[in-house]
Amino acid sequence: MALLEVLDLTKDYPRSGVPGAGTSGINRVVDGVSFTIRRGETLGLVGESGSGKSTVARMVLGLIPPSSGEVRFDGQSVTAASPAALRKLRRRFQPVFQDPFAALNPRMTVAAILAEPFKIHLPGLPASARQEQVRALLAAVGLDESSLPRFPHEFSGGQRQRINIARALALRPELLVLDEPVSALDVSVGAQIVNLLRQLQQDFQLTYLFISHSMPLVRYLATGIAVLRRGRLVESGECEEVCRAPQDPYTQALLRATPELPEGLTELNN
Fold it and tell me: Which of 43, 48, 139, 260 is deepest in the core (most CB within 10 A)?
């Protein structure tokens, strides 16, 4: 059974300066997108900037409503969920966004950032147990306890993204929606984060929706691939099959544009 089902998602926005002017006043940024992800798998959603990838991610997370279509998580509708039901569902799927600094509250210490999900969703958890969980999360992403009293500005970009990932893992979600999680990082640092994600998937039995403009990164991490162009899926299938023999000219162009894996990933690509 699929853990995540995306069914004919469409998202329209009014064109600037033409409010409510019929179809001519509509900008369709996502157009009939459908895919499924089974437990333990990674789907790579790939396309250029402006292709609609992040809009799909936000609809999957229930952050914005689709104009039409539906998102189902483990058989439950995310799209039609009440606020209370959506809050419960969000314990089971979490985002990791592109900008690791913007995603962290600059006025909160790492200890407070990682404790916050437990305070919101598990208010009855004793403080000692909460602190133990926070320390375990830091260890899982390769940071030590000296990070706890520090603030986000005291860390490098790669360390901030590790903190973001730790926070996403706090409530032991089943699905992570990774929206360009390494595109704001240096190549070598991004390679470390991708390797970390691969290890965490095994350690925590995670399912990933991995959104990227980089075909090599998707090929490295994903089991399946969906190629998005101007809001529409142009090709999808098993990752190795699509990358070995792409059928759509756009997919072929993406593969030609970035044919090599970043340094630091090649040794683990097997």
Answer: 43
Contact (Cβ atoms closer than 8 angstroms) between residue 57 and residue 209: yes
The closest alpha carbon to 185, from 165, 200, 205, belongs to 165
Q: Which residue has the tokens 């990674």?
A: 42
Paired with 66 in beta bridges are none
- Kindly state the DSSP code that residue 13 receives in the 8-state scheme: E
CB 34 within 8 A of CB 232: no
Residues in the chain: 270
Q: What is the pLDDT of residues 164-184, one digit of tens each?
A: 999 999 999 999 999 999 988
Reported pTM: 0.90
Contacts of 34 (CB under 8 A, 6+ apart): 6, 7, 8, 9, 69, 233
Structure tokens at 261: 């894996």
What are the tens digits of pLDDT across the range 55-65?
Answer: 999 999 999 99
